Predict the 3D structure of the following.
Amino acid sequence: MSALPVWTDLAAYRAAVAELAPLVRLADADETGVLRVVDGRGAWWDRLERLTDTLGVVVDEPQPAPAAAHERLRALALPVVVARRRLRADVVDAVASVPAAHVVVDAWGSASEAAVILRDAVGWARVLAGGPLDVLAHAATPTADTLALVQGSVGVSVTRALGGSAVGDALTAIALGPRRVEVRLDSAAATIHVETDDAEGRRIAPPRREAAERVALRRLRDAIGAGVRLDDLDALAHDDEILGVE
């Protein structure tokens, strides 16, 4: 496959395009048939729906979207990659699928990021529990959210609390069962730590050094080359629905 053109005005993605050459290249502003990067701030779903001259799209760090918007997006035929730095696709793929009796996720961060942090905490709960979640109870206060969830016979608890100020956010997700899997995220340090404990001992996954923007562009290019529709939007819709976004 020849280099695919990418149009974006986000500096981090323009740098990623340069690093990924010759797989991709920067497109001219008036070029059609390109890959596009949609900024996830604000009503990103409206901007995504209006794109008509694109081969595929990366949605970068989307804000939670209402159910009606997700329903409309299901009709999109083009490949869409959702870049969520707290829930990186390459890290998710590397976490072994293991039987779990219970999943516990704790997260904290600033008030401005509260909804996104809770949504991504739910995402990790879904990944470690092995599938879609149902809500048993949701308690919310001005400073915290607590969710009781279930996936089949697997119990799941998710807590999000306010903490820190302009120093990023953090998340710890633990799957408890025959094998214990722990995922720790620290956005201030830009690290994701994955640790597994079982009868064979403790294993720590090597750190991911590739920038999230590069991962997103590579996944989109690969999806276009294979002619497949990714399930990123479906996963995002599930996690937003758990939050009850209106």
Notes: The first strand starts at residue 4 and ends at 7. The chain has a mean pLDDT of 92. The chain has seven helices and 13 strands. Residues 114-129 form the longest helix (16 residues).
